[in-house]
Amino acid sequence: MPLWGRRLLVVLAIWVAALAFAHWSPMEDDFGDFVLLFTAPLTLGLILGLLAGLPWWLPVGLLAFPGTFLLVYAASPWLDVLEVETWPKPVGLAFPAVGYLIVSWLFSPGFRWPKIGVGVLLAAGVVGASPLEDLRSDTEFEDMITSTSVPLVVPVIPGHTLVSSSSLPLNGEIELRYASPDGETEIEVYLHPETRDPQEMCLDPAPRYPIDERSECREAAPGVWVRTAPGWVRALGRAGGATMQMIAHDLPEDVLVRGFAQTRPVTPEELVELRDV
Fold this sequence. Notes:
Keywords: Membrane, Transmembrane, Transmembrane helix
Strand content: 15-25%
Strand order of the largest sheet: 2-3-4-8-7-6-5
Structural class: alpha+beta
Oligomer: single chain
Distance between the termini: 53 Å
Order of helices and strands: HHHHHHHEEEEHEEEEHEH
Radius of gyration: 28 Å
Largest sheet: 7 strands, antiparallel
Number of strands: 9
Shape: elongated
Helix content: 40-55%
Number of helices: 10
């Protein structure tokens, strides 16, 4: 059988193996399935390359592993460009076979300029994957920000500047982080819809913080409710059409209370630029 025929049979066997493992996998988690679906077929390809007498079977079989990874890395951002959640199963499971085919072809004689062209395209795909992924992530984050019912305003806190916004706005809220110029003190700020009642929220426990263990909720200023614990302070109130809560460590209570006195508008683009991931 001609060389290309043997090579295509090996590639076909890799694809069929991936399809088979997709229907039967002893792994109990998604990561294990992912590893199995890629490593097992490529290991089979390494063995079949030897049995089929393919030239350079060992380096081809070994380089097919990182080659397939780079191929998946370069192709993944295109899911968002094409506005699909995942590749159709026959396509997604073809990556090990295609990775092996490309590496094997690159080791075959001739085709100098086509090989250079494919190499350039693959390199461009790998290099361009990161900016494309960042663009996708920025778009998703901006969509999450605009989908909340929280007015896009942020507090002006004395001695502190807005330095980051959470990359995961959850439960219809927006999380911000403020810091002093010297970085010694930080304040976590959560923006909620105005329909949330600051006093009721003050009575609720604050996960991850010891603020509510042995403390009472009291009104420190008109409409601003405060709850403290040794070294910690939590303030809640309405400002700029939003309900806000601020949590800080080793800061005077009045710094947070004064933060409700003034707000400024903020754009989704500004929050995108400040997102922490």
